[in-house]
TrEMBL record, chain A:
One of the GO biological process terms: response to UV
Keyword vocabulary terms for this entry: DNA damage, DNA excision, DNA repair, Endonuclease, Hydrolase, Nuclease
Name of the protein described by the UniProt record: UV-endonuclease UvdE family
Source superkingdom: Bacteria
DNA damage listed as a keyword: yes
From TrEMBL, chain B:
Keyword RNA-binding: no
Source taxon at top rank: Bacteria
Gene Ontology molecular-function annotations: endonuclease activity
Protein name: UV-endonuclease UvdE family
The species this protein was found in: Paenibacillus pini JCM 16418
Pfam families found in the cross-reference section: UvdE
Record keywords, A-Z: DNA damage, DNA repair, Endonuclease, Hydrolase, Nuclease
Length: 184, 149
């Protein structure tokens, strides 16, 4: 049995290569010019993607073929106050460069949306946010031009303690999502 | 999409049942399985988990000669009182025990290390695995091994 090992998001060897630099909503709103604030978010995201590429190059040097991307590549990407912002326009080339490197070197990459992404929740607003978050991860993989071999991994119940029985309707939700996210 | 067993709610068996039902591949987290199980050993579920990786969704865009290997997550408890928290590194013994159990009928496996020390944990684990070179573990590269059946 051939076993390949991988690691998650950050290196403890490559310095100053965080792929998860962020900005809080509080600092975002402190910037008076909203357009300028959005450009700043895009600059942070571009840096995160650049650091991701640096990490992939480090991985290649050590024959590491398995890697999980940071879910925080784009700060505030799914924030409710920024739904009019499409970060993928400005970041098109940055995402494409990461995906190209992955394909060229036959790497296995994935995302793991955080434990707030739970589809078996009885709370409609949590479900809605979870679906939005999952869609965001699919968009990132699409922007990288990666196919269905790059997958999003999620928990069913996440960290929230819920009934172990699959709530009514969950199967329908999953089936809908699987159809929608076939490529993920 | 893949679904993973978690450490508090859905056990590996429950997650497996949902994966079978939906036709999606299951990521087995052997640390979660250890702290949240139905009394089974992790390898007792493996042949069924392996089958979830043979479905159309699991193998979408993969080729027959290079199928997408199943994936597991591995981490070690931080301390005896913090069983669910992740330690800096990975203990080799429980992982190797699992790998040896499944090696006879699993051609390839990818292992995601979820440890605080990230890639350093990977390199340390590789060092630990190299101590088993006369006990069926062959080092293939800086980040891969062959576990002989």
């Amino acid at each position: 049995m051939i076993v390949r090992f991988g690691y998650v998001a950050m290196s403890t060897v490559v310095k100053n290569a965080s792929p998860s630099k962020t900005m809080t909503m509080a600092s975002f709103t402190k910037l008076n010019n909203r357009d300028a604030a959005i450009r700043k978010l895009e600059r942070i995201a571009a840096e995160n993607l650049h650091n991701t590429l640096r990490l992939l190059k480090h991985n290649r040097a050590y024959d590491i073929k398995v890697y999980r991307f940071s879910s925080k590549l784009i700060p505030l990407a799914t924030h409710a106050d920024l739904t009019d912002w499409d970060p993928f326009i400005a970041l098109k080339d940055d995402f494409a460069d990461v995906g190209k490197y992955v394909r060229e070197h036959g790497m296995r990459v994935s995302f793991h949306p955080d434990h707030f992404t739970v589809l078996s929740t009885p709370r409609p607003e949590v479900l809605q946010n979870s679906i939005r978050d999952l869609q965001h991860h699919v968009q990132m993989l699409d922007a990288m031009g990666l196919n269905a071999m790059a997958k999003n991994n999620i928990h069913i119940g996440g960290a929230i303690k819920i009934s172990k029985r699959l709530p009514h309707g969950l199967k329908k939700i999953f089936e809908g999502l699987i159809r929608e996210f076939k490529s993920a | 999409m893949t679904l993973e067993n978690d450490d508090k709610t859905f056990t590996a068996q429950e997650t497996l049942a949902v994966c079978q039902n939906l036709g999606v591949p299951m990521v087995l987290d052997i640390h979660h399985q250890w702290v949240n199980n139905d009394g089974e050993k992790p390898w007792e579920l493996w042949s069924d988990i392996l089958k979830t990786w043979q479905g159309n969704l699991a193998q979408a865009d993969a080729t027959l000669d290079q199928p997408l290997p199943p994936k597991i997550h591995v981490s070690s408890p931080k301390s005896p009182t913090e069983l669910r928290s992740h330690a800096d590194g990975v203990e080799v013994a429980p992982l190797l025990a699992f790998l040896r159990e499944i090696a006879p009928y699993t051609p390839a496996l990818d292992v995601m290390i979820e440890a605080k020390s990230k890639d350093t944990a990977l390199f340390d684990l590789m060092k630990d695995l190299s101590n088993f070179s006369e006990e069926g573990v062959k080092i293939l590269s800086e980040a891969s091994v062959e576990v002989l059946a």
